[in-house]
Each structure stands twice: as C-alpha cells, then as structure tokens.
Design brief:
This protein has 330 residues and is α/β, with parallel strands linked by helices. It is 44% helix and 18% strand. Helix 1 (4-11) crosses helix 3 (30-43).
C-alpha cells in the first residue's frame, strides 16, 4: 500500500504538505494541493480515515443546513459551498431544516456528534441555536439570515434595498394597488422585504394599502394568501412576492380566478428560478447571487477553521432586478 512518503516523493513536496493538502487545509497553495491530490490518485493512496480523524479530532466534512432543499435559491447556495469545499478536499453533508428550529437543532447535535469541521446554516427562527457550536469550538457561518445575538461570520443579500427597487419599478409602471406576499414575521428576510416594499411606497407618497399577507415560505401558503387578496373589495393590481416557491402558489391562484399575470396583475418575485423566464408571461425577478453566497460562505468557513481567532466577517451582496413582461404595463 502506498504511504504518505510515497505521495510526497511523487509530488515533490514534504510529508507535512501532503498531510495538509489531503486534509483540506486552506493554507496550502491550490496548485500545490492539486499536485498532491494527483500524485495520490496516481498511486492509489487511501488515507486512514479513522486514524486521521482521531489525530485531527474532526472529520473533513462540512454540514450545510438550509431551510428548504426544494427552493432553487438554496440549492444554488449548496452548489457554491460544495464547489469550494471540494477544491480543498472537504465533503459536504446537506441537511434540510424545513424552517423548523427543532430539525435545525437535531442536525446541529448530529454535526457535533460527528465532529464535523464546520457548519454553514441558514437560521430557521428568530432565536440563535448555535451556542453549543461556539462552546465546542466548531466553526460556523450563517447565510441568507444573520444569527440573532451572535457576532459571527455571515453572508447576506441587501434584500430590503432590492424589495424597494422592485416595488418602485411597479410604481413607475403605473400600478396603483401594489400588494406584498412575504414570509413569516420574525424571519429576517421576510421582514426586510416587507420593509423595502413599504420604503418604496412611502418614497412615492403612496398610502400603504392593506394588501400585505404573511405566510410560510411555501407555495401552499402563498396560494391561500393570493386567493385572500384577490377576494378583497379592491384587490391588488400588482404583487411583490418574497420567493420563487411562493410565486408558484400565486400563479396557481391567479389561474384559478381567471386573472392574467402581466395584464390584470403585475408581478415581481424574488429569485430567478430556472422556470421564471419560461412561463407566459416571463416573470420579472429580483435575482440574488445564490451561488456566490455559498462560495463566499465556504471560503469564510475554511478561513475560520484554519484560524479560529480571526475577527468575524459580515459580507453583504447585492441583488439585481430583471424586468420582464410580468411587470410591464400593456
């Protein structure tokens, strides 16, 4: 069986460099790490996993806890995390919390028991659940939503500004009764998108109509919310929708009521799902840099693993409004 020394000789590096490269340490030059991995592959070298984990007291595994694996936004984040982690030899375990604090806690417990190297999570509730990660020295990074009461690495998008711009676009198109379908109260992204919507109406000197509905970040909840809004004496003539899963529910409600998107009701939704440009009419969207969120979060986590004492970093990315036929006045 080939040894670490064999790999070091083939790659022309020290055994310490081989160990760091195969353990995914971010301090190793990427080109050098690639050379080591190539040498290991050519020799058929297989590290002794259990022994390695005992020495490191951690597995070369990152846990990614997201709130909805069916949402293309979160799957794109996962891809960004996986691509960066894979480059330095880490594996990624994907966990779906379903916006449940209980499930999130269960996955955090498992992450601790399995001695993962670090955790990237999108928090499910308004209270922090990562205290035990911090107490055990496990590296973690929050994405999409900050961790309440925690001074931690975090990667966010300025969705309040994005919601303001999307609503201002609807105002500029001449819509008068602009409604908003957003997520649960206390969830930072849902609160921010509602705040941005209200910012735009205030800037336009519009009275905020009673056309806001809050529900779970799911198609079923948005379907009920949209039906309720369409039943009002003065229903909305445009809607800002908080994510693409909700947009599916809204479109279903419009179809059931015989209301035409883009003609009877203008629509802008968060997240540029793969199908958004394919429906009739194509949906105007607030495109968030989901893949970049995951990639940045993974790099921050690897840096935190390498140096637990480094100051926390808050990264805020921008979103982009893509105007399509669903929000343009005929």
């Amino acid at each position: 069986m080939p040894t670490v020394s064999d790999v070091a000789a083939r790659a022309g590096v020290s055994t310490a460099t081989v160990s760091r490269a195969l353990n995914g340490k971010p301090t190793v030059d990427p080109d050098l790490a690639a050379r080591v991995r190539q040498a290991a592959d050519e020799l058929g070298y297989q590290p002794n996993g259990p022994a390695r984990n005992l020495r490191r007291q951690e597995a070369a595994v990152v846990a990614l806890i997201i709130s909805d694996v069916e949402n293309p936004f979160f799957t794109a984040i996962a891809r960004g995390v996986e691509d960066v982690a894979h480059e330095v030899g880490y594996s990624v375990v994907l966990c779906n919390s379903d916006e449940s604090v209980e499930k999130e806690n269960r996955y955090l417990d498992i992450a601790i028991q399995e001695r993962v190297a670090g955790v990237i999570l999108s928090p499910s509730g308004p209270t922090s659940t990562v205290a035990r990660l911090a107490s055990r020295g496990t590296a973690y990074v929050a994405v999409d939503r900050p961790l309440p009461g925690q001074d931690s690495d975090v990667v966010l998008v300025d969705t309040r500004l994005a919601a303001r711009e999307a609503t201002a676009h609807l105002v500029a198109q001449g819509y008068e009764r602009i409604g908003c379908v957003t997520g649960p109260a206390g969830v930072r992204t849902a609160d921010d998108r509602l705040a941005g919507y209200r910012d735009a109406l205030k800037a336009a000197r519009r009275r905020t109509p009673k056309l806001v509905r809050r529900t779970e970040y799911k198609a079923a909840g948005a379907h009920r919310a949209a039906l309720d809004l369409l039943s009002q004496p003065e229903p909305p003539d445009a809607l800002l929708i908080a994510n693409s899963a909700m947009a599916v529910g809204v479109l279903q409600a419009l179809q059931e009521r015989g209301v035409r998107a883009g003609r009877d009701v203008g629509l802008v939704t968060f997240d540029d799902a793969p199908w958004a440009a394919l429906v009739d009419p194509p949906l105007s969207v607030v495109a968030q840099p989901a893949y970049e969120i995951g990639a940045v979060a993974a790099r921050l986590l690897l840096a935190r693993i390498a140096d637990p004492t480094r100051p926390p970093t808050a990264t805020t990315l921008g979103a982009r409004l893509i105007k399509r036929a669903s929000s343009r006045r005929p």
